[in-house]
Specification:
The complex is a heterodimer. Chain A is an alpha+beta fold. Chain A contains eleven helices and seven strands. The longest helix of chain A has 29 residues, at about 260-290. Chain B has helices at about 15-30, 35-40, 50-60, 75-90, 95-110, 115-120, 215-255, 265-295, 300-325, 335-350, 355-365; strands at about 125, 140, 145-155, 165-170, 175-180, 185-190, 200-205, 210-215, 255, 260. Classes of the chains: A alpha+beta, B alpha+beta.
């Protein structure tokens, strides 16, 4: 039986046994996980069938056509996009059994405790300490830019377990229970007026050693696997023409001839071309991944999307003119997810400023492209070979 | 906009067949063409006709797009695009784009089967329109009995052509004629890009063979120009990739201030930006080639999109190559100037980005 045949058979069986019209979302997603249709490239018993990754598109298409409930990816992007592949690659059997199913059904939301006030783009500088105490680790420190922490049940946590080692070697990677004593989440209000992110204070949090992902001191390697998943996830979804931020601008242009201006027209058309080419570049990247030939374009695409989002949202405000001067709402709110397209132009303009910072700044990504893709020499470093505790701070 | 994303099912990668074809073209070019030979064209040397004969004999390039029953290879725009990437990467002075792509497209669209067969057998053809043309605007007139008079400026591929395909205005509308080149005054021009030189043509009461008339003639010429624009994008990708690769290799060894220059962040970031744009250009060019090959309804959008994007990327990559090579990049000895000249000429050929933006404005409903 070919992969496609097996997929079609299993989807038909799932739909026959769990009518989407009458089955609740969580029940349906549990059944889907158990049928191996959560991530078909994951192993049998862990939400998958051990098939080729690209067959997932077929599953998603068939289920969507049948009106089946989907995972609420927008509520659990860290869990689905980053924690799941990392747990699969580095977790123990017990960890995989415990975490993957409720993660997929979004019964348990995940967040990411990586960045710190002193460790953003230089992530290997994390200072949050994890000190071994019997079967536990005692964790102390402060994390920042943690989206979704207020809703999260679990976090993937990068912490310093050996300050005497050089900085990349002295870190370990844990699963942190966000309901444990000593975990405090404080909203961090941002440029849009909303508090999409949080600061997370960790005070004597006891993390069992059984919650460690990967070996002691292997944290940097595990974190890199997570970050690679993040960059693949960005731009990883097929979208229709004008499906991104070019959409609202183009629709405004069509609907309001009175706003048109020759100079804006030139800029709009150039950005329309850029957006469409970026969409095709994403499609080509996915085809390469599906063919088992992962390319280095993931980092490149993130650079492109950040620039596009900023240029398009800026153009949109100018196009709107007087209306561009009005903002929807400055009230402090806690959005469940980032929805750029569904918001107004002023929000898009301000929120897009984060696109070239979050998930690796554009400056760091250009270094990555220059060094890992083009093979150019690395930046000179002042922290090489020096134990973390001796680094100037 | 349609519910199905345009191009959702279009293969943007290279097939094994395409890669094999690429290897053949690259092999001939590496044996038969050097940068000094291209540079010599600017000092009055003639292009070596044996290079084109070898490419045609060994790889079948002359009739690549001509159907097999007419003596060609029966390949599609996808394969032609891969050939153009390699020809661009070598700034090869051969008439593949002007004869095997543009002229052959016009001949096949006009139903001129005998002439298409002759091109596959080695006759070089050229569409007699100015190189930047994207629409038909004939400057030649035809009498009722098919005698042509007029001037056509800036025609590419005319110097080595055996037959010229001439759009002409007749009393009853547009017509497309074939004229043996020896009946035409062909005046060479000192061209910005001497690896694809242009020439001015003059016709005085010249006897010509009618190929198509009316809408059929217009469609044949416009299809040919659109195919030229669509596939020129792949040549531009080849140029840009060569410029990026060569510059990166140089900056891995060139030292200043006691450091390898490619290690300076200001330089590294510029090269990263070129890389991002070259990869994007490749996706756009592949999409244009694939939609053209499949007769996809989105092919006109794809062609304008590819030209609007790729032409500027090739120029950027070539300009960055000159700049980042420093003084050596300004010399006649270094080949960077050959790529800059081809890239800049290509940016104008078959329509500038601005022209294609204006086309897109109509095609995707974003009017001025």
């Amino acid at each position: 039986m070919t992969g496609i045949d097996e997929i079609e058979t299993r989807v038909a069986k799932l739909l026959a046994e769990h009518d989407p019209a009458t089955t609740g979302t969580v029940d349906f997603l549990r059944a889907r996980f158990d049928a191996g249709l959560a991530w078909v490239h994951f192993p049998v018993g862990l939400g998958g069938l051990g098939l080729a990754r690209e067959l997932q598109n077929q599953v998603n298409t068939l289920l969507a056509a049948a009106g089946a409930p989907d995972t609420d990816g927008g509520r659990n992007p860290i869990g689905l996009g980053m924690a799941a592949p990392t747990i699969l690659a580095y977790g123990t059997d017990e960890q995989k059994q415990r975490y993957l199913r409720p993660l997929f059904t979004c019964e348990e939301i995940w967040c990411q405790l990586f960045s710190e006030p002193g460790a953003g783009s230089d992530l290997a500088g994390v200072a949050t300490r994890a000190v071994r105490d019997g079967d536990d680790w005692v964790v102390n420190g402060q994390k920042v830019w943690t989206s979704g922490a207020q809703n999260a049940r679990f976090a993937i946590l990068l912490a310093r377990s050996d300050p005497d080692a050089v900085k990349h070697a002295g870190m370990s990677y844990f699963v942190c229970d966000m309901t444990d004593p000593g975990v405090e989440v404080r909203p961090l209000r941002q440029i849009t007026g909303e508090a999409e992110f949080n600061e997370v204070f960790l005070t004597d949090v006891r993390v069992p050693d059984a919650n460690r992902l990967g070996a002691v001191g292997q944290g940097w390697e595990v974190a890199n696997a997570t970050l690679m998943s993040e960059r693949v996830a960005i731009g990883g979804n097929a979208s229709p023409r004008e499906g991104g931020m070019i959409g609202p601008v183009s629709r405004t242009w069509r609907a309001h001839p009175e706003l048109r201006d020759p100079e804006l027209h030139v800029r709009l058309l150039k950005l329309w071309v850029d957006a469409e080419v970026a969409r095709l570049t994403g499609a080509r990247l996915r085809q390469k991944l599906a063919a088992g030939r992962p390319g280095p374009e993931g980092s490149a695409l993130k650079l492109t999307f950040a620039r596009l989002a900023q240029q398009l949202s800026g153009l949109e405000l100018e196009l709107l003119g007087e209306d561009g001067l009005r903002y929807s709402d400055w009230t402090l709110r806690r959005p469940e997810k980032v929805d750029m397209i569904g918001r107004d132009a002023g929000y898009r303009y301000l929120r897009a400023k984060g696109n070239s910072i979050e998930g690796g700044t554009s400056e760091v990504l250009r270094n990555i492209v220059g060094e890992r893709v083009l093979g150019l020499p690395p930046e000179p470093r002042g922290d090489k070979g020096i134990p973390w505790k001796d680094l100037p701070r | 906009m349609s519910a199905v994303p345009p191009g959702a099912d279009v293969d943007l990668l290279y097939t094994d067949v395409e890669e094999a074809l690429r290897a053949s073209v690259r092999s001939v070019l590496s044996r038969r063409l050097s940068a000094p030979q291209v540079a010599a064209l600017y000092d009055g040397a003639a292009a070596d006709p044996a290079l084109w004969q070898t490419l045609s004999a060994e790889v079948g390039l002359a009739g690549l797009l001509v159907p097999e029953d007419l003596g060609g290879a029966g390949a599609t725009a996808r394969e032609a695009a891969v050939v153009l990437e390699e020809l661009g990467a070598a700034v090869a002075p051969v008439p593949f784009l002007t004869s095997s792509v543009v002229a052959v497209t016009a001949l096949l669209a006009a139903g001129a089967r005998d002439l298409a067969t002759e091109v596959a057998e080695g006759t070089i053809a050229a569409l007699a329109t100015p190189l930047p043309a994207t629409t038909v605007a004939p400057t030649v007139t035809a009498t009722a009995d098919g005698r042509l008079s007029g001037e056509i400026r800036s025609v590419a591929g005319a110097l080595d052509a055996g037959v010229l395909l001439v759009p002409a205005a007749a009393a009853d509308g547009l017509r497309l004629y074939a004229v043996p080149a020896d009946r035409v005054r062909i005046t060479p021009v000192v061209s910005l890009d001497m690896s694809r030189p242009i020439a001015d043509l003059g016709l005085t009461d010249v006897e010509a063979t009618l190929l198509a008339e009316g809408e059929a003639a217009r469609a044949a010429v416009e299809q040919a120009l659109e195919a030229g624009a669509a596939l020129l994008a792949s040549e531009q990708v080849g140029i840009a990739q060569w410029c990026l690769d060569t510059t990166v290799e140089y900056l891995k060894v060139r030292k200043q201030f006691g450091r390898v220059v490619g290690g300076f962040q200001a330089v590294k970031h510029r090269l990263a930006d070129v890389f991002v744009q070259v990869e994007s250009a490749r996706a756009a060019a592949r999409y244009a080639a694939a939609t053209l090959a499949e007769g996809d309804p989105d092919r006109s959008v794809a062609a304008a999109l590819a030209q609007a994007y790729c032409s500027d990327v090739a120029v950027l990559a070539a300009e960055e190559a000159v700049q980042l090579h420093g003084g050596i990049g300004m010399t006649w000895e270094h080949p960077a100037h050959l790529y800059l000249k081809r890239a800049k000429a290509d940016q104008i050929a078959y329509g500038t980005a601005a022209v294609h933006h204006a086309r897109l404005a109509g095609l995707v409903d974003l009017p001025a």
